[in-house]
Amino acid sequence: MQAWNKVSRMPAAAIKKMQDELFTKMIREELAVRHPYYRELFKESNINPDQIKGVEDISNLPFTEKEDLLPREADLRHPKKFVLEVPSEGEQKGKKKGFALFGKKDTGPVPSDYKFHTLYFSAGRTGKPVPFEYTHHDLRNLKEAGTRAFDVLGLTRDDTMINAFTYAPSAFFWQMFYSTVETGSTALQAGGGKVLGMEKILKAMDNMEAPVLVCAPGYAIFALQTLEHFGFSAGNLERVITGIDYAPMEAVEKMRRLMETVGANDKRVQRMYFLAEAKSGWAECEPDYGYHTNPDHIFVEIVDPESGAAVGEGEAGEVVITHLDSRGTVLLRCRTGDIATGGLVTEPCPNCKRTVPRIMGDIERKAYYFDLHSGEGPVRFDGNRLRKMMIARDDVLVWYLEINRDGNQDALNLVVKGVSGSDEGELLKSLEQELKKEVAVPLTVESATLDAVANKIGLEKFITEQVIFDNRNH
Ligand SMILES: [Zn+2]
């Protein structure tokens, strides 16, 4: 753990030197010694930990895929292989030498840092949830990541907030919870639609005169669209902080428009990027300035999603993370399946001047790229792009898309509920026109009731809603 005021102002060369030291130490003193999975992998692959001198050697090491982390049918305890073993007391005494980070004396591993605290799970929107083990050391880092994110967001103890992230054993909710506690803010831990429901969340926002709403993007948009229906005022609302699910700039713009429409006091929207694999989330100081990462916690790589080769600064690619300071579950080069459209940049943020590496652009899901069969052969369909288009429209309240097999080709069916007062016939017609240009397979558009769509997408049931359903393999 390093002081944030120091880390966030460090020149790029100093960040690189710090990461080299942390990475080498992690490989040699943790993964090669007490990590069941990587210790074995290094042996099998003839990787000599002593030859790893810094982060530039990382490309010689294999990737970890999400599938590697999942429980096996024959071995439900498989995820435990990614958890560091607790060092013995003797190891501490017998230790001869270690790295002296920033001149601090290295006293060797402290067994209490490795003590199991809790499990948080990945959101499991598109796959099985993966368990991540947090020790007390990780809990301290989670709190630290939280207070740093609040600093980047410019939140202080004077900002009363409604934490409407879904209550669940996932780091998203808990990082936000701990940040409010550590910062000393007044906060209602609402638990999201699943726990409190929309009406009570809006009522709390009104009663507490809370200027800050913390909410997943789809749910925030839905809240702003239905506020008037429930008869609540948004007069005190000043900003929405959105996270868990990805919020493209189209979502930021839409929230700003809606905040204006409902008479909010200000229309500030800020984004956070939570990554279960990183065991924490990062914030943007302002939209489109990039997620300000913690270079002493995580080493971020951006790679070509097909070849796995590193891409250049600021180029789009898949986010790959390596833990530099975790205990419990520790990951090396884990491919997240998330695409950062603006890649990674290491120059200081032009807005806040912090120097930490920033993940730029919108985050997209690799799992939302679909290969479809058309009458004329295979075609690629980008669900991320569809999601952006649907978010951008002001006449759509909720929606989902089904991908079906229809004989020899695939077909899409879009189900939609318009905002109240919209002409349904017009809505269906204009959606059909807009989307037909985008897809090379047959497309139908139909309307359904709010209840039917909300239920299907799990608006108040899941951590975030699911909007694309691939029915072809089921
Ligand atoms: Zn910034």
Task: Write a brief structural summary.
With 474 residues, the chain is an alpha/beta fold. The chain is 31% helix and 23% strand.
Give your account of this protein's structure.
- By secondary structure, the protein is of the alpha/beta class.
- It has a domain at 367-470: GMP Synthetase, Chain A, domain 3 (2-Layer Sandwich).
- It has 14 helices and 21 strands.
- The chain has helices at residues 4-7, 12-34, 36-44, 66-69, 89-94, 136-153, 171-183, 192-195, 198-207, 217-230, 249-261, 383-392, 424-436, 450-457; strands spanning 116-121, 131-135, 161-163, 187-189, 212-215, 239-242, 268-275, 280-283, 291-292, 298-303, 317-323, 334-340, 344-345, 358-359, 363-365, 369-374, 377-382, 396-406, 409-418, 443-447, 468-470.
- Strands 4-3-5-6-7-8 form a 6-stranded mixed beta sheet, with helices on both faces. Strands 10-11-12-15 form a 4-stranded antiparallel beta sheet.
- Helix 2 crosses helix 3 (36-44) and helix 6 (136-153) packs across helix 7 (171-183).
- Bound molecules: zinc ion.
- Zinc ion (ZN) is lined by residues 285, 289, 292, 349, 351-352, 354.
Characteristic terms for this protein:
GMP Synthetase, Chain A, domain 3; 14 helices; 474 residues; four-stranded antiparallel sheet; globular; alpha/beta
Separation, N- and C-terminal Cα atoms? 47 Å
Bound molecules: zinc ion
Give me the CATH architecture of the domain at 367-470, please. 2-Layer Sandwich
Number of helical stretches of at least 4 residues:
14
Radius of gyration: 23 Å
Strand order of the largest sheet: 4-3-5-6-7-8
Shape: globular
- Overall strand count: 21
Helix percent reads 25-40%
